[in-house]
Amino acid sequence: MSARWGDSRIDVTLVKAGRTKIRYPADVVADDGNRITVRAPWAGEGVRDLGFVRFEPGDVFTEYYWRDRWYAVKEVRAGDGALKGWYTDITRPARVSADELVVEDLDLDLWVSADGALVLRLDEDEFAASGLAERDPGAAEQAERALDALELLARQGRFTSLLD
């Protein structure tokens, strides 16, 4: 499928621990057969203040998913277009059908601020408590490796090269 912004819509479903965490419609921006890019407004309810960033109504997320990588990158912009930064979910590779994109959240996350000065590893305690390392050691290793690689790219100032 090769699509441009506004050509088609798809439902994005984030699954965590076998249950749907959130599901929302998004516009397909591009799909090269491996990476699919979608755009959607903030799908959460109200404001979510994480301390280092606020997600709020009016924010726009351009989201990059790969069919062969263990993460999804979400570029976050305020309603006025100002870049807030990038929120990365460590996930299993995306599964994409004609009308749905599904990713399984593996609890680890990375935040990179717009200026690249703030790089935060998130939810490592949730990851440890999830029991993934015991249930699926291979997946846990892939998740940790993905987080390490993304953090390194961010600290080297090369994070956005993933999105080119």
Describe the structure.
18% of the residues lie in helices and 46% in strands. With 164 residues, the chain is α+β, with helices and mostly antiparallel strands. 30% of the residues are buried.
List key phrases describing it.
164 residues; seven-stranded mixed β-barrel; globular; 18% helix; disordered N terminus; two-stranded antiparallel ribbon; FomD barrel-like fold; alpha+beta; 3 helices
In short:
The chain is an alpha+beta fold. The chain has three helices and eleven strands; from the N terminus they run βββββββββββααα. The strands form two sheets. Strands 1-2-3-6-7-8-10 form a seven-stranded mixed barrel. Strands 4-5 form a two-stranded antiparallel sheet.
What name does CATH use for the topology?
Answer: FomD barrel-like fold
Terminal Cα span: 19 Å
Task: Give the helix proportion (percent range).
Answer: 10-25%
In total, how many domains does the architecture comprise? 1
Strand order of the largest sheet: 1-2-3-6-7-8-10
Question: Low-confidence runs (pLDDT<50, min 5 residues)?
Answer: 1-5
- Rough shape? globular
Domain DUF402: 39-154
GO molecular function, one term: hydrolase activity
Protein name: DUF402 domain-containing protein
Organism: Streptomyces tirandamycinicus
